[in-house]
Each structure stands twice: as structure tokens, then as C-alpha cells.
């Protein structure tokens, strides 16, 4: 596949670039600073320095692509932000202009209740985290809603629980529109692998893909 990856210098984005290249895909990694992309990845992908907030730049980066992966995350902290909403708006606009349709974007499990949360997860952990990160989560929720309502886009929201570093384990659990039981954590590299698997899976279009270790 021909794949464009936004947020390529982040944990999931870098892992997605590396994994996609290893699978033999043609990868365009969109970054703000090429130096932040590891050397072993830079030499195996097409690096494009561009601003994801510029729909024209997005259009250029996604033209002729089979799939677009948005691995963008918030910039940390608890302050109010619109970075994810603005990025989603720009990516959708640029994809429409380019005639690109397949979009997979990273969401998060914490702001969303799930029947499998259990007492501690549903009554303690998630409410506490959602309260602490109320303002950045509001941005995430707006971005998710925008993607879900985007006409002409074949979207999949990829919703992981707590993220961990480390090499890919080679396995993950997947649930469409419902989290796997006891979905507590997953490695960033496994989220990347799941996104690449889902990119070629038409049954995941228009669904939320919950992933967990």
C-alpha cells in the first residue's frame, strides 16, 4: 500500500513508519522536524516536512495514497487546546481535496465508558483521569466527532487504553465498537501494527477499533 503518516515523530507514528516499511509499504512520513525521525526510519521512508494544519500541504501529502494514518497526539499538559480538532479538520479537508478516502486516526479509551471497565476502571480510574485531563480530552472528543461525521471519508478510530513503550509484542486484541475484556494497556508499537492491519480491512470502515494487549 501507499501510506501517508501524520505525527510520524511520535511514539505510535514512528513505530508505524518502521513497521510499514518493514512490511514493504511505500511510506510518506509527514513531520515538522525531520531530525526528530530516527535515522533508520528516515532512510526507509519518504520524509515530507509540512504543517498538518495546512490543508494544502495535507492534500499534497495524501494524493494517490491508499491510506492515511493520523498518529497525532496532544502536546501534553492540562491546558485547553484545539490542536487535535484543528488537525482533524485540516486532514479531512486535505483528503477531500485530494480524493483520498481511507483514514485511520488514533483516539483514546480513557474518555469513553465501556462495559468492561469494571468497578475501579469505570467508577474510579477513568473518571479521575477524565477530570484531570478534562480540557485536552474535550479536544480529543471534538476531533473524534469530526472524523466520525466526515462525509466522503472511510474512517476508523483506533482507541487504545494506557500506552506503553517497548518493542511490538506481535499480538493485540481487537474489538469493533466494543473494547476487549480487561483492556488496560498496550504498547505503542502494537497500536501501530493494529493500524496497519486495519488499513487494509474494509470491515473496520465506519467503526471504532478498540485495541488492547
From TrEMBL:
User: NAD(P)-binding domain: from which residue to which, for each copy?
Assistant: 7-202
Q: Which InterPro entries match?
A: NAD(P)-bd_dom, NAD(P)-bd_dom_sf, Polyketide_Oxido-like
**Protein name from the UniProt record:** SDR family oxidoreductase
According to the lineage, what is the superkingdom? Bacteria
Q: Which PROSITE patterns match?
A: PROKAR_LIPOPROTEIN
Q: Which GO terms describe its molecular function?
A: oxidoreductase activity, acting on the CH-NH group of donors, NAD or NADP as acceptor
**What is the organism lineage in this UniProt record?**
Bacteria, Bacillati, Actinomycetota, Actinomycetes, Streptosporangiales
